[in-house]
Amino acid sequence: MQKINLYKELNANSYPGRGIVIGRSADGKYAVTAYFIMGRSSNSRNRIFVEDGDGIRTQAYDESRLEDPSLIIYAPVRVLENTTIVTNGDQTDTIYDGLKQGKSFEESLRSREFEPDAPNYTPRISGVMEIEKGKYTYALSILKSDNGNPEQCLRYTFSYDNPLAGEGHFIHTYMKDGNPLPSFEGEPKFVAIDGDIDTFAGKVWESLNLDNKVSLFVRYIDIATGETKTRILNKNT
Hints:
The chain is mainly beta. It has helices spanning 6-11, 42-45, 91-100, 105-108, 197-207, and strands at 19-24, 30-38, 47-52, 55-60, 77-80, 83-87, 124-132, 135-146, 149-161, 167-172, 189-192, 213-222, 228-234. The chain has one domain (6-234): Glutamine Phosphoribosylpyrophosphate, subunit 1, domain 1, CATH 3.60.20. Strand 5 (77-80) and strand 6 form a beta hairpin.
């Protein structure tokens, strides 16, 4: 699989929807993740990311304009011991609870499927990053309808052991803008990870469509010490 430029990939797609990037920094020192949300409706755009303990949650920017909190208000990032969970919905809690009970990432998601937002049936995308005694692994998952048919849920999990410096994977909800929105297809995209946290966060943010981008979360985790650096960028400030 050819490594692609993440910024060009984002710039070429006006509406990838929600997206997760997980990988390793170019210097090999950090486990890296980014999560962004976009929106076309006023309800989807009326959001910000706020810190919540070790993770983050979405919050209405203007509570008076909040129309429907379902599917848009949730905790995208939670941390359980040495595992960081990143998702595009309330399945973050499902994974957290499953891992706490001793289930695997994949097993934890067996009770969930794509979002009930016909006709889009938005995929649920999820990622976990685990750092254990200086060893770093990660996995990504997508739960999606069968080519828009809600009668069947397709479940894919991709695991990555010992990720190499400067490399990562990117998965997002939609292939492009449309009505209905076409779900992501294929394996997570193999992307380059470069720069320190501020450079990386800045480039990702600038690459997202100006009209549709809403919020971005980026975290760098020191693989040796577990110390974290976090950046949050919100269009609504």
